[in-house]
């Protein structure tokens, strides 16, 4: 984010913060699906996720996603479909809810949380040297996911084009996005997000999404 980027003030309520964090989770889910099927990815959505993962001590909530809800537009659209009971790609939904389950497992594992924190601090140094989306940084983020979250019993199996999934840097890119999904899932939980609220507070969430739209 450059200094000249305008800060778009999203509604500053617990529900709005939960919605934006959850949009980050579903944005990651959507990008994993896109990457695995096509090998391509929306650049703005991708950069937003990677930067959020690297920024472990943001100056504000808005700074996490680059100051403008449109940076999470892909995820907000998926979330609108979920809340509005519209047809949503079932694979994207599976990835999204699997990320929330995986986040809960991670929260109960202090040693893994500490390990991830240490790894991210080291990767931040790499990002300062090479740039946030340099392939060395992406490879390190992917490795961090593989050596921590991939070892848990709850694992995310990515579907897609087998030849694409085995191509150069593809496994690392997919894992880096999954790690970003975990980052936003943790953020969602920190902001008071809970699975049951998606069912029982659907109306409030829909109203907030309308305001963000």
UniProtKB/TrEMBL annotation:
The keyword Cytoplasm applies. Its main location: cytoplasm. The keyword Transmembrane helix does not apply. Pfam families: DUF489. It is a peripheral membrane protein. It is found in: Cytoplasm; Cell membrane. InterPro entries: HflD, HflD-like_sf. Keywords: Cell membrane, Cytoplasm, Membrane. It comes from the Bacteria. PANTHER family: HIGH FREQUENCY LYSOGENIZATION PROTEIN HFLD. Belongs to the HflD family. HAMAP family: HflD_protein. NCBIfam families: PRK00218.1-2. This is High frequency lysogenization protein HflD homolog.
């Amino acid at each position: 984010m450059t200094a000249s980027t305008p800060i778009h003030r999203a509604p500053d309520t617990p529900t709005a913060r939960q919605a934006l964090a959850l949009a980050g989770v579903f944005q990651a889910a959507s990008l994993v699906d896109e990457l695995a099927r096509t090998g391509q990815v929306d650049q703005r959505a991708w950069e937003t996720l990677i930067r959020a993962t690297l920024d472990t001590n943001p100056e504000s909530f808005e700074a996490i996603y680059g100051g403008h809800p449109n940076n999470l537009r892909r995820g907000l659209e998926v979330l609108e479909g979920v809340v509005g009971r519209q047809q949503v790609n079932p694979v994207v939904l599976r990835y999204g809810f699997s990320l929330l389950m995986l986040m809960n497992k991670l929260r109960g594992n202090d040693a893994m949380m500490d390990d991830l924190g240490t790894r991210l601090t080291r990767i931040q140094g790499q990002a300062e040297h090479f740039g946030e989306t340099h392939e060395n940084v992406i490879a390190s983020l992917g490795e961090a996911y593989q050596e921590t979250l991939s070892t848990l019993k709850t694992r995310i199996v990515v579907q897609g084009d087998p030849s694409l999934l085995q191509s150069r840097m593809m496994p690392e890119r997919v894992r880096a996005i999954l790690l970003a999904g975990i980052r936003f899932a943790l953020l969602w939980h920190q902001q008071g997000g809970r699975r049951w609220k998606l069912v029982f507070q659907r109306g409030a969430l829909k109203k907030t999404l309308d305001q963000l739209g």
